[in-house]
Amino acid sequence: MGVEPGASRGLEQLRRTARLLVGDGRGILVADESPAAMTVRLEKAGVPSTPRNRRAFRELLVTTPDLNEGISGVILCDETFRQRASDGRTFPRLVGDLGMVPGVAIAAGLRTLAGTAGEAITEGMDSVGPRLAQYTALGARFAKWRTVFQVGAGRPTMLALRANAHSTARFAAASQAAGVVPVVEPKVLVDGANSHSECAEATLKVLRHTFRALGDAGVDAGAVVLRPTMVVSGVYTRRSCSPAVVARRCIRTLVAAVPHDLAGVAFMSGGLPPAVAATNLAAMQGVDAPWPRTFAFGGALVISPLLAWLGEPARVALGQAVLSVGVERTVRGLAPARPAGRPFA
Predict the structure, then answer these.
(1) pLDDT tens, position by position, 29-66
(2) How would you classify residue 305: left for phi > 0, otherwise alpha for psi between -120 and 50, otherwise beta?
């Protein structure tokens, strides 16, 4: 049976959007903290967490002058996605008008997976279809789904691997059916004492299970963006590796598990200091791989602008200048992959 012409055109559009997110030497800005998570971040900076302040900070980020020279797409949370900026435009419309692709985080949080010793499963799968329809109507062109895996002491278990891979595949299939590019985020936690090798082994297992499930669900890899953690030692491990070692281990691990026709890989910073994450990413550009590698940074890019802004309208320009510097520094590391003639403004 042949593919319907309309379905074929829709799939090609998804592939173009996915390539746009990762393939022209730009990266993704992740500003999708839930109101609860954003409250913690704002209050640490001494800024009251009100819907107005949360909206104002996200508006500061996306309206940074010439941001689209280094940022291809912006991921927002449900609250921001439904808000309007100060000029009356919805945030998806604002992001699109500024030359970037609007995206949304769709997972509904984590809960303990029954039958495990504290491992997590992502919630929200039962309502993914209706929510995708809502977000598409609001202007979403891509959506992110996060799963979380612990490392060490026999973890991740087979139950956690299979359950989370299954939910990821269902999400990705539903996204592509809704005309939305799925961004798959299997987050391997490195907040313990795991070694570099343990992280690599866990990441390999997670990715193999994830992409096996995606294939079984009929998900087109050419219209999928992977947002993985970097393969690094845990924060409580004394031994650290050079950027060159991290880059080789990351790419070797991914090549062993990820389809070669994947649209691309956009690494999260994973809690690493911004300069370290950017340096690791730059080192990856010198390692051969079948797909483009870029960034999808959250905290590594947005915390410094928040601390520069501090909720004061008179400091918006300062916060935007800080964000510009952070994006420029990160994008500079992608130089080998950037087309000629596209300097960051």
Answers:
(1) 999 999 999 999 999 999 999 999 999 999 999 999 99
(2) alpha
